[in-house]
Amino acid sequence: MKTLVLVHGHGVDADIWKKLKVFLHDFDVLTPDFSTQTAFKTIEEYADGLFHWLEHQKIEKARS
């Protein structure tokens, strides 16, 4: 099964994906929640945090 990572934008949390996830039966859907990460002040810091989260999840390859 392929893994699909849904990333929320600034000002919202991972709950925005709840209704969509029910339609994605063919995927292992992961929805990291960075809404409480106040240390992310720039898009670069957000991307770095996501990168480290993906490493922690043992996701080695990603495509956009």
Question: What can be said about this structure in brief?
Answer:
This protein is α+β, with helices and mostly antiparallel strands.
How much helix, percentage-wise, in residues? 25-40%
Mean pLDDT across all residues, rounded? 87
SS summary, helix count = 2
Biggest sheet architecture: 2 strands, parallel
Q: What is the topological layout?
A:
Layout: E1 2-5, H1 18-21, E2 27-30, H2 43-56
3D structure, described in words:
This protein has 64 residues and is an alpha+beta fold. It contains 2 helices and 2 strands. The chain has a two-stranded parallel ribbon with strand order 1-2. Helix 1 (18-21) links the parallel strand 1 and strand 2 (27-30).
Provide the descriptors you would attach to this structure in a database record.
64 residues
